[in-house]
Amino acid sequence: MAYTLDRTYEERIRRFSSQRYGLYLAIVSMLMLFAALTSAYIVRRSAGNWLEFELPSIFYINTVVIVLSSITLHTSWHLFKKGNKAGYRLLMVLTFILGITFLVMQYMGWQEMTAQGLYLQVNPSASFIYVISGIHAAHLIGGLGTLIVAMAHAFRLRFKVTEIRKHRFELVIIYWHFVDLLWLYLLVFFVFI
Amino acid sequence: MASIDIIKQDELEHGHDDHHGHDDHDHHGDKYQSGFITHYIFSTDHKMISKQFLITGMFWAVIGALMSLVFRLQLGFPEENMLWLKPILGKWITVSDGIGTLAPDFYYALVTMHGTILVFFVLTAGLSGTFSNLLIPLQIGARDMASGFLNMLSYWFFFLAGTIMFASLFLSTGPFAGGWTAYPPLSALPQAMSGSGAGMTLWAVSLIFFVVSVLLGGMNYITTVLNLRTKGMTMWRLPLTIWAFLVTAILGLLSFPVLVSAIFLLIFDRSLGTSFFLSEIFIQGEALSNVGGSPILYQHLFWFLGHPEVYIIIVPAFGIVSEVMSVHARKPIFGYKAMVLSILAIAILAFIVWAHHMFMSGVNPFIANIFVLFTLIIAVPSAVKVFNWIATLWGGNIRFNTAMLFSIGFVSLFISGGLTGIFLGNSAIDIQLHDTYFVVAHFHIVMGIAAFFGMYAGVYHWFPRLYGRFMNETLGKIHFWGTMIGAYAIFWPMHYLGMAGVPRRYYKFGNFDAFAHFGDMNKFITIAAIIVFFLQVLMLINFFYSIFRGKKQTTLNPYDANTLEWTVPINAGHGNWSGEIPHVHRWAYDYSKGGRNIPQTEPLGDGEQDMGNDHH
Ligand code: HEM
Ligand SMILES: [Cu+2]
Asked: Where are the beta strands (DSSP E) in chain A?
């Protein structure tokens, strides 16, 4: 048996907000993952035998990179709404490049650590940095994936400001800001805790 | 997932800001049509996914139960010849002089797999997966879950997790054998015991996929409840089932990621040589290089999930029992709001009691005190629930059908098991009771059996909603009474074993004079377990027979219930209601009001007050 249903306007709008809810919930669960890892860090550190060391300096520069990428994406969004096709496309590509740059520089940061003899296995204090920043990087790669889809929309579709495209763009932005803010939290955590 | 081409076409057609262009699938009207594969296998219909969860859960329940029979045989009849099991268990039965003996390593593997399977695959996926899927859309008035696609993925990740765990049973080194809690070092060192190698790797991978399944499901359940309720269905008009599933999903979303973090760190310790959980370990006289790790850290992470997990298992049963009781007592549920608030209170407390599993692991006794306090506070909302269930039954016009009997049985079990929780929650008494059969008795009664009773109540009650037929009531009652008596026969004696200090997870007690006189008790328990197992087989026969031959459901609303799932056509297709979704005007519990049961769809009469609505 099958039914043919016509969704009302209201039902379609609700579908958008459902997707937003879903994304926020996914973000909550990812936050719990990082909350667990950082709590584990604190618990483990208070147990002693903890090697203190300086964070690789490149992590600080990288923080600027990722914040910048959030700004470019946000600007791209505003230009999109204003109907500025070229600017919207350009800044989206720029965001993607900044994202890749962040990944590469994280990798350089890890190399900086190993160069100082801080291998993954040396002490849990170093292991935690690798693991936590590594899992963050994995989340960023997910963000790059969504950006690729967004760029495909930006370049392959005829430019039009429609509700559905605004809505999809918003989802990408929410996730990207989350990955950005997450890194800020992690950096503050590593430096001050 | 929308492919780019579809979007393109959509935007060419409706690229303006008018409201037709909002969604790329819907403007043609959804055609919920399906072929065999999309209907039975890769289905996105919540009703079919619900059945998939249920039947997969049943499969795992049988496997898990058979495992328990094997280790119960070992415990009850340690000297008996097990040669007859050799065709099934192969090399895990060692033979000397024609006498077959269960390999001790495999005993531990069986106990571990039994726990993992029952806790995660049966009582989490099989219970909450089945009923959240079946009832959320039907009872709140939605065509389907917020995302049918993610919902389908949720099932298939569960299936994948199960497949991996199943494969681990056939490894030559055996499945993981370090207990369902997978404490390091047994879980962190591949060389620790035979199951710690490939067995543990598959365990870890399987559980990660399982968590993905739970999270995808949970996101969907929460979004659907918050966002897709039909007109008039305010939160305070939701049936208690829905409240329970909502809270369960929230618990899962907040706690399962923490398990993932623990498993990640375990994987690093296992394969990359880190020392998160390992320190100063000697294996066969040789010191390992790992220093500085903390096995207690793993326990914190595990139980931060582990305790909420036990509520993830029992809360759906709370909801099912409340609903079934109210329908069959034909009385409004007593203290509806108190029921909701107590579920919420239990859920919040569930996050701040985890260390009561670690009183004997070397946590600071002063910190333990705080956990004692919070743990004992859980008794308050639990008692509220029990009181309200009994008050709902009180003076009710009760139909003692199988679903109702299982609900009443649930309350009995929840009381018995809750009381022993209060013993265990005291850190001083726990010195004696920890890791004994007392704990085994506690959690099997309060969680294992009680949650099964909740599930059975749900299956018997909503069977017509699933298959358009009824299960056989006579067989159902035999199933109930046998299981009720049998379950107590199995687990009641275990309290005495535990109080005497008999430890759990021991392969045999022959070398301990202090426990020698418990031999007969162990035999008794094993025999009871075998009988109870066959009663569950009876239930399965009843289930599958009734799918094809059960008494047909002829009226839409066979129990004269108030909730929306009984307004959906028998054997409804994808989309549930053929016409418009009904609107809701009142709470779900107007039973025997002015002499009749008033469905939620009936508008309020003049001057009539809605009990569920908070605008008064
Ligand atoms: C009044 C409520 C409860 C209290 C105070 C309580 C207390 C405890 C305590 C203190 C332990 C640890 C015992 C030990 O290992 O020495 C324990 C174990 C356990 N409880 Fe409860 N409990 C309560 C209700 C529940 C409920 C409702 C469930 C499940 C639905 C449950 C499931 C478990 C499980 C699974 C374990 C054992 C886990 C293991 O070690 O393998 N408990 N309980
Ligand atoms: Cu607990």
From this structure: 4-5
